[in-house]
Amino acid sequence: MAPTPIQENLVTSNQTYASSFKDGHLALPPAKKYAVVTCMDARIDPAAAYGISLGDAHVIRNAGGNARDALRSLVISEQLLGTQEILLIKHTGCGMLTFKNEDAAGLVRKNLGEEAVGELAAFAGDFQPFAELDEAVKTDVAFLKASKLIPETVTISGWVYEVETGKVRSVV
Fold first, then answer.
1. For residue 160, what is the enclosing H or E element?
2. Is 134 annotated as a binding residue?
3. Where in the sequence is the signal peptide annotated (predicted)?
4. Strand order of the sheet with strand 57-62?
5. pLDDT (tens digit, 0 to 9) for every residue of the chain, 172 residues total?
């Protein structure tokens, strides 16, 4: 099968990147000992927007910058790789603000069929949408602070990134 244009771009762009790559010496643990949980939204460039240089931090991205989805990675980041701080950063204009679980399940049913709907059980059919941005940040930070998997010594804060301005603001 011939590569897609996206795959061709990956290879070409990577060749350019690799030709001047000089950071293969960086250590496995993040140098600045922190992790960022943020959304997978294509309008967010965490390195540029949040001042993260290669090797500084773990960046965990998922739909909505969701703490529950990120928990497994956060435990690995903290327990195995020594991070001591978590920045949870959601954003304005997030798609997770635009639907309810029933809407997403309905689309799966319509587009993929009943067998696919059955597989939603892997995450209890909870796409974890939210109706209010700041409240979702507070809820996720509270979830992480209450988790026995995250030690009390880990600093946890919650933020909102504004896709319209590129600015972040502290929520909790």
1. strand 155-161
2. no
3. none
4. 57-62, 34-39, 85-91, 155-161, 168-170
5. 999 999 999 999 999 999 999 999 999 999 999 999 999 999 999 999 999 999 999 999 999 999 999 999 999 999 999 999 999 999 999 999 999 999 999 999 999 999 999 999 999 999 999 999 999 999 999 999 999 999 999 999 999 999 999 999 999 9
23 annotated as belonging to a binding site for a ligand: no
CATH classification at residue 154: 3.40.1050.10
**For residues 166 and 134, what is the distance between their CA atoms, to the nearest angstrom?**
17
Residues 130-145 have pLDDT tens digits of: 999 999 999 999 999 9
Q: Which residue range(s) make up the domain with 154?
A: 28-96+131-170
pTM of the full structure? 0.96
58 annotated as belonging to a binding site for a ligand: no
Q: How many domains does the chain have?
A: 1
DSSP three-state, residue 37: strand
DSSP assigned state of 58: E
Residues written for the chain: 172
Q: Using N-to-C axis directions, what is the helix angle for 67-75 and 133-146, rounded to 10°?
A: 30
